[in-house]
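Case study 2.
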Amino acid sequence: MSSPTDRHGTLHTPSLHGRVPDDLPVLLRSNPLAYALQLTQRRLFTVYLPLAAALCLIAIRSWLLTVIALAVVGLHYVVTCLDEATRARSPLLGADEHGLFLRPNGVARPALHLPWPYVKELAVRRSGGVWMLCVTPRDPGEDKRAQERETAGRFYGFWRIVRYQRMLRRLGTSLFIPIVGTDPDQLLTALTARRGAR
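Prediction:
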């Protein structure tokens, strides 16, 4: 009897799929709202709240101007959260004894399947206040292809490109997944066990 990975034809080579299968032994699921709040939490404390405080000081002579400024900042944060929430997909990651399914950067792109022999390293690193599972492939070309898929067919503003490139340098790979709703060390242990069981 064939395994789910056999049915997808991904047992021996890296490949792309529309989704991460739901029937894998290890799954990382995400609630869109929790995903968005975790990814924007640092920006809330380092950008939005200081900006709101500065606007209040500037507009201290006019309560109406203060209310309008705070409403604009609050609305911008809500829109940012909604944007992150619409990009989230669940499951973000799945694994069995044959290999690893993941959505690089956690977004609604095709899921990548890497058989375990194609995975060089698994690590957990922190970026922007969020824990990330970082997957280093043995083939550097796979890393480059993931970057191309991330930026293809969508408008990337200057600051977004800068932020993405900084994240790549910090994490050392373009194959990373935000860890939301689970303990990073437990997830890494579960994946390492599956990798060793092949």
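Residues 13 and 56 are 57 Å apart (CA to CA).
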